[in-house]
Design brief:
The complex is a heterodimer of chains A (65) and B (467). Chain A is mainly α and 65 residues long. In chain A, 57% of the residues lie in helices and 0% in strands. In chain A, helix 1 crosses helix 2. The chains are: A mainly alpha (65), B alpha+beta (467).
Chain lengths: 65, 467
């Protein structure tokens, strides 16, 4: 996975589409704050998303049937 | 207030056992202290006076009958209000939970405290749904720091940290997903334990992030913390996340010293996120322990923090999606849009974060091949003023609220056990230091903590109103 280089417009468009897909209808002030939080998450996640992992690194299973 | 330090949990239990006092008398004193002091710090959201009197009578009746008393007999304690308490609605700091039915049964750990003879006196304030580090709760009020009520207590177990720091109770239970025991322990100057992920049962606690949620005790003294932890341990078939491990007591291990332990300071990322008071706390601890070695995790620490951040946002957001759709106006303004942003994160990012945790865990195993215990600050700074938005950190202006977890998130991301030790310089606010060990080695955390306590380096300071 390469590091996302998202513009402000792309983030806003993603937030709008993803909120719609999840049944979230936001007034303009809340939408702006969600975009702000999403933008900060992109910045924090950047080193994570840039990390290259071999395919055998799997999610640790915790479910015990 | 009292003119002398309040008794520890273990001394209370000893006094009850030998008949120097009764559990009933102690509980009346505790309830009176809560009524007198808590209005200034707002650590309690419920006081369970009737239950406390019933439990105290049971302890006293047991002694009167000549039956042996359990280890915490008569010890008052309280729990973060995400623990189920039979007959009480489990708020988890949320207004949207307030109309839920009362819990039908106690959480496993509340039941274990009762079996250990402890007496529940109430439920404690927290950030809504545990998504915060400050306990500035818009519904139930700000919990204030007993050492300076103009400052925060930390969070999300802020009521837990403040109630113990104020000595309203010698013990309390909290939860820690990204630092929510360690941050308030640090800012309030008390001892906190975040055990290994899966060590203690979470059954009957309101969830936040299933992949990362831990529960644990907070105490004003280290022996009390150990005794409480020992009483809480044990497998729980009703909790899939609880490891099927036997009780591994730590109370007896604390006097073994640290001469044979390889202790290293976490440098790099962990030293880069310190204000001067936090750096002094780490320096003081490392000097006392004779630590000369440091370990730099390189990019793994930031990646671990990022993984914890993404997993938290995704799982927390998904959990609360129904309320976010229909009751957003009743949700905490400080966190509801963060929950929304988390709920819509790309799934590929979440999966990457979970895989990165496995990678990071493998990296840390190599670190623990050469070190037994790692030292790092618990928070970048001491308690900040209520309402503060920004923190000056390493020459940059950063948002305060998420930054309080910068040093704890990379550790809980992979479930390592940590004792948060209170370090206070004369006349200054306390800051906590994390004592970190390999999975399931809480005993090593406690041995190092005991060395610091014995040397007077780590001590929970009394608030000024106790002078």
């Amino acid at each position: 996975m390469t590091t996302p280089t998202l513009t402000a417009e792309e983030i806003a468009a993603y937030v709008d589409a993803a909120c719609a897909a999840n049944g979230l209808v936001l007034p303009p002030d809340e939408r702006e704050r969600v975009i702000g939080h999403f933008t900060r998450t992109v910045a924090i996640a950047t080193p994570l998303l840039a990390l290259e992992l071999p395919p055998d690194v799997e999610i640790a299973p915790v479910f015990r049937p | 207030m009292s003119g002398h330090p309040p008794p520890s949990a273990l001394s209370i239990a000893a006094d009850v056992r030998r008949g120097a006092t009764t559990a009933g008398a102690l509980i009346e004193e505790t309830l009176a202290a809560i009524a007198r002091v808590d209005p200034s710090i707002n650590s309690f959201t419920d006081v369970t006076a009737a239950r406390a009197r019933t439990e105290a009578r049971a302890v006293d009746a047991r002694r009167a009958a000549g039956a042996p008393l359990p280890p915490l007999a008569g010890v008052p304690y309280a729990v973060k209000n995400l623990f189920d308490v039979a007959g009480l609605t489990t708020l988890a700091g949320a207004k949207v939970n307030a109309d839920h039915p009362a819990a039908a049964a106690d959480a496993t750990l509340v039941a274990r405290m009762r079996n250990a003879g402890a007496v529940l006196v109430g439920a404690l304030n927290m950030d809504e749904f545990a998504y915060g580090f400050t306990t500035e709760n818009s519904h139930y009020g700000v919990t204030r720091n007993p050492h300076d009520p103009t400052r925060i207590a930390g969070g999300s177990s802020g009521g837990t940290g403040a109630a113990v720091a104020a000595r309203l109770v010698p013990l309390a239970l909290g939860s820690d997903t990204n630092g929510s025991i360690r941050v308030p322990s640090s800012l309030c100057g008390v001892w906190g334990l975040k055990p290994t992920f899966g060590r203690l049962s979470r059954r009957g606690t309101f969830p936040f992030v299933a992949s990362l949620d831990h529960v644990g005790p907070v105490a004003a003294s280290l022996p009390d913390l150990a005794a409480c932890y020992d009483a809480l341990q044990g497998p729980d078939v009703d909790d899939d996340a609880c490891a099927q491990r036997p009780v591994e007591p730590v109370s007896g291990a604390m006097q073994r010293g640290v001469a044979d332990l390889r202790i290293a300071r976490l440098s790099g990322y962990f030293d880069a996120h310190l204000t001067p008071p936090a750096a002094v706390a780490v320096d003081t601890v490392c000097a006392a322990l004779g630590v000369t070695r440091s370990v730099d995790l390189g990019d793994a620490a930031a990646i671990g923090r990022a993984a914890a951040f993404v997993v938290t946002a995704s799982e927390g957001g998904a959990l609360h999606l129904p309320a976010l759709r229909t009751r957003r106006a009743d949700m905490e303004p400080l966190s509801r849009e963060r929950f929304v942003a988390g709920a819509i994160l790309p799934v590929a990012w979440y999966v990457k974060a979970q895989r990165a945790r496995a990678w990071y865990r493998a990296r840390m195993r190599t670190v623990f091949a050469d070190a037994d215990v790692l030292i790092a600050a618990a928070t970048p700074c001491p308690a900040t003023p209520v309402g503060a938005e920004w923190l000056e950190l390493a020459g940059a202006r950063v948002p305060l609220r998420p930054s309080l977890g910068l040093l704890t998130q990379p550790i809980s991301c992979i479930g390592l056990p940590v004792v948060a030790a209170p370090v206070a310089q004369p006349g200054a606010l306390p800051v906590g230091v994390q004592i970190i060990a390999a999975p399931w080695r809480e005993d090593l955390c406690f041995r190092v903590a005991a060395a610091l306590a014995a040397g007077g380096v780590a001590v929970a300071p009394l608030p000024a109103f106790h002078a």
